[in-house]
Each structure stands twice: as C-alpha cells, then as structure tokens.
Amino acid sequence: MARTYREAGVDLDEARRAVELISQAAARTTTPEVMSGVGGFGSLFRLDSDRWPDPVLVASTDGVGTKLKIAIALGRHDTVGEDLVNHCVNDVAVQGADPLFFLDYLGVGRLQAGQAADLVAGMARACLANGVALVGGETAELPGLYQDADYDLAGFVVGVASRADLITGARVRPGDALIGLPSTGLHTNGYSLARRVFGEADWRRPAPGLDGTLGDALLATHRSYLAEMRALRTALRDAHSDVLAFAHITGGGWVENVPRTLPDGLGVEVETGSWPVPRIFSLIQEAGDIPDEEMVRTFNLGIGLTCVVRRSQVETALSALPSACVVGRVVASRRGQPRVAFI
Question: pLDDT by residue (tens digit) across 115-125?
C-alpha cells in the first residue's frame, strides 16, 4: 500500500525542480506589462489602454493534438512547445488582435523535469519571437490517467485590439481576391490520419522528395504568421485600405476554416495548382490512397493562412508578402452548395 505521494506516483520534488526550470524560461519572455512572475495563484498583467483605445480582449485556446505521439516516440519535445504558442497566436491575430500573454497546461503520467523544461523552452522561444509574455501555467502529474511516457499539452493566449481594428470579414464581397501564405508542413492538424498511413517504424526513415526523415517533416514547426499579418495591414493602410479577412487553416482544413471568415452567402473558388503543394502531403495521400475531398478537409496542403483583399490591392499585398500568392477569389454561394470549391 502506498504511504506517500511519491509511492502513489506523484513526485513533488521533481515538480519543484520543474517549476524552477520553467520559471527561468518564462522570465526571459517578460514584458513591461507583466506584474507578477510564475508561481503565484494567478498572473497579473496591466493593459495599456492608451495604446489600444476602446480595447477588446481576444482569447483562444488549443492543443498540439496527436503530433505529440511523434514527438514522444522520437524524443524531441522542444518544437511542440513552439507549435502550441504559434497556433494560439495565429488564432487571435487573424481577428486583428495583438497577442499579450500566454499560459500553458501540461498533463503527464510521470513528471520528468528535464522534459518539461524542454517543452517550455520551445514555448518561451516562440513567445519571445512573437513578443508575448509567458506568464504562468499548470503542470499536472496524473499517474493512471496517462501512461508514463505520455503527456498532453494545451495553451491559452489573450490578445487585445482596438474595436475599430477588429477583422470580422463583414466587408468581404464577391470579386475580392484570396491570397495564401505557405505553411511549413502539417502544422498541428491531420496527424491522426497521417499516423494511420505511416507508422512509428517509418518516422526514422528518409522518404523520397524530403530533406531528412519522415519524422523531420512531420515535426516541422507550426509557423507564426503574426509578422506577415502586421506587415500586410500596414502596407494596405498606407494604400488607404485594409485586410478584409484572415483564415488560419487548422482543424477542418480549407473546407471548414475559410468559410468561418466570410459573410453568409459567400464562398471561394480556389485555383488548384496556384501554389506548390509540399511533398509530405502527396506522400500521405499516395500511401494512404486518400481522396482529394478528404485531403482538403483534413490538411492545409501547403497554405497555412489565407487573406481576403480587394482585387485592386493585390499588387500591394504581394509586395508586402513576397512568399504569398493569389490562390482564388470570393464568389456568391448558394444555400446547400459547398462554400469552398477547387477549380
């Protein structure tokens, strides 16, 4: 019979060591608005209302999903922390918000302070790159709920925008241009299907058309688009215009995410072949014999962010975003018809 918490599977000494390592990483991300460090019951953050008149808070939460199974199997934990932060940052930025601070939740079967520190080091690296403060989180050791090697990771971000700067998609109209920015791979979606196609034995092997192993391609970091979104908005404002809608292509692929940013009665026609689809997607499709319809509702297929701008502003947009390309157009959509059509 267990008489101590450690004998029951929870190591408080290891938890204390993890907090010390995590606090060091978090301290590097502190911004002037942060009023408390990691370790309190709650984190304090002062909002600068002079910078954001009529401020609106924008919050989002997400996880890394079963991409973690690949990270665990390959023993590579720092990049999934970056994935988590960048995914959450993109989700508030597409609505026009500046991300302010980030918190994480880590649930483990058996806490290993070094592994937890690797995870948070990745988060801190992404927070620094995005100008976001890592203000706290929760690490929970849950023996019996997770197997020893397993863990789950979730993140929470809060951003702010002046009400006048929110991007709602309300002004989108037929004829507007759809612009795409390249992804760095699967990002954090579609991994349950990808893992059914390629098992663990495949992840350490090189694959034709890839630089490195299949595991390298599957663990490619979910990129942040914050800098590109800001650059585009600045360029368009200088031209007396603005972005009409952004869509982060995440779970649900093209089919679910692009319509979230459009008014009722509108859809998009996407020009097949207007951008290069990374080899990792064709490898998955070929090995799994996956139909095109399933690919576009599961994966980003090489475009991680779409932007809607007026047709007259395409040249300005592409000058601001050298890696972007026009991938389609906004069209009227009939009730009951697909709102995303590939032509």
Answer: 888 998 999 99
| Contact between residue 307 and residue 232 where contact means Cβ atoms under 8 Å apart | yes
pLDDT (tens digit, 9 = 90+) per residue, 247-281? Answer: 999 989 999 999 999 999 999 999 999 999 999 99
Kind plus residue range of the DSSP H or E element containing 106: strand 98-108
Res 43 pLDDT > 60: yes
- E strands along 204-270, which residues? 245-248, 266-270
Read off φ and ψ for residue 79, nearest 5 degrees.
-75, -30
Q: At what angle do helices 113-130 and 78-93 cross, to 10 degrees?
A: 40
> What SS3 state is found at 272?
coil
Tokens of 68: 């973690």
- Regarding pTM above 0.85, the answer is yes
Domains of the chain and CATH, by start: 12-165 (3.30.1330.10), 177-342 (3.90.650.10)
- Two tokens at 13? 């000494």
Q: Are 123 and 154 in contact (CB under 8 A)?
A: no
- Lowest mean pLDDT, pick from 15-19, 60-64, 148-152, 158-162: 15-19
Average pLDDT taken over every residue of the chain: 90
Q: How many residues does the chain have?
A: 343
The partner residues of 340 in beta bridges, in order of sequence, read 268
The burial of 21, by beta-carbon neighbours within 10 Å (0-12 exposed, 13-18 middle, 19 or more buried), is given as middle
Nearest-10 Cα torsion for 126, 128, 130, 135? 90
